């Protein structure tokens, strides 16, 4: 006879004596927390600081545990400490294939067009700039011969076919491929690391979809991708509007049918997490399989054959969860839920009580080892923080006997918001203040949509009619979620823009909120902590933000374009250009938020060209702008004119050249700084001309910083002898041959010259002859394509400090 198997409740509940079971966290939970914190804070603390953090927390915990018999388990702690060390010691979970390394050798190698054969295993998406999807390379052709290859690739098609290629297709095309790289700006999102952890290393571009040949791919993963694509298509077609698209995203993980407007509304309302497959989905799949195995006919047959139905049920549930993880795409939240379910399954197999804290700890460390650096991803942080809240609150007594269930649901929603808000502020600089209410309204509908959607997907091959009915019901629930999201997103404060609280204050607030969630009586402690820690950190950030003893200028890397941020002594902020479309929100805004900037005092647009002004105008939609400076003139671009009208309506003062003496605009501060515009001379001519670029100077402590826009040597000749000496020169026109003449450089004698250009720039900038002239003039040259962002600091004593994000 099989060994007796005692089913147990997973977490809270009443024992036979009526006492509430409050299972304590496992002894090694702090070690897992240390590993996650070290990985998340590694960019700010560095490798040494992260190791010291882990070591210090381990020592403190060991000293505390030694005083409590039975709380310290040396073997488990040693194992988790070894895993934490492995997390810190490994940079990337996957090494780049040979073809990626070959492409990275030189700009010439990146331009070579190869033939590709790649499988489409993840759903692509049509957007304003065409179709974009992630493919897995199977073979490549250099010359006339094909050879096997591996690795992931982002494929963009500017003009795709009307019907997108189905999942499980093998795509054949010719294209150059560029290795995925970061810009190199302070605090930027690690796009390269994010993709490397998913096995994607490069991007390719095809202009016309007719140049892409598609056929059915072979193999298990291709077949599974087709199953996933068919399920997502059926879910999307089962309901009108965006209800079906939401079901496809929530059940199968396919977001290709969602409108960008709905995704934005979901995030603004604080409902973005509903698009991620997580514990709810995994629990439904595991529970359904468990109940199926334990059904009476099957249970009796297993018992007769000598097999333990409980163990068979646990194994079947684990297999079903694994299959569902593959079907849903394997995002961070689903991997976390699968690992937690695996730990619980092992415990149930052994006849032990399943401790969700142990599962959460194991999931965090295992994911950290398999995908080093994943703890720095906001999806990881939000998923684990919210799950910790649910576990902590589940340890409280069941509230149904004393208060309505809706009160408990509202309480859970509030605590989840309190824990995740600091992470959202640190990562996205937005707070969805209506999230607790929106989640209270949408979560019941989400549970119904997921349950009906999962049942419908499972019944598709067996009973298509019943499956369509279930998917239609799920679509109705999805439409309700969309209505909640769209309605809440229109409310004031959905969301609120905030500055970056900094990593220290962020994680202190998360820890405090988690402690209060576990012990609601700790509100006084939380308030005291916030007053002390928040006040101290706030004073530090305020001193940095409004420091009157130094000037700080950051020349950002935005590809082919220009963007700079200047913090003047005393706290006023100048932004010069913003790069091309999208660069303002993706590059410049994060830098400003991390500098605790909430208002731009002077926004300067050098001239109205596509690599300078669009990103700057994007900032006007997110920040209060005091004054806008630009060279004036006639602007045929109606988008720019409309943007000026919006800014004027919002109270921004527009400053253009007048018929006066040079400089035509000048501002000064009591701290000793001066901001001045020296060109163009008059408000006439096309606003997009390079020679209408605003020539800007900033002076402080005897030092002068100069921005030249895209001015040519003719403008340089007109200003030679007028500007005087320039300590830091923002080189004109990205280092083109028609600017930075010898006469100009001899006139201003720059100590440092900064060139803004894209890596492997399609225009061949900066020109070699320009770099030679700069070197002959005695200037040290910094390049944003090679050095990343360049920071310049000027102290009150005139000390000049120049640093680059990358080291060459």
Summing up helix and strand content along with how strands pair, one would put the structural category as alpha+beta
CATH classification, class level of the domain at 546-804: Alpha Beta
CA gyration radius, whole angstroms: 29 Å
Helix count equals: 26
Query: How would a crystallographer describe the biggest sheet?
Result: 9 strands, mixed
Based on DSSP secondary structure assignment, what is the total number of beta strands?
26
Q: Classify the fold: give the CATH topology of the domain at 546-804.
A: Metallo-beta-lactamase, Chain A
What overall geometry do the principal axes of the alpha carbons give?
Answer: globular
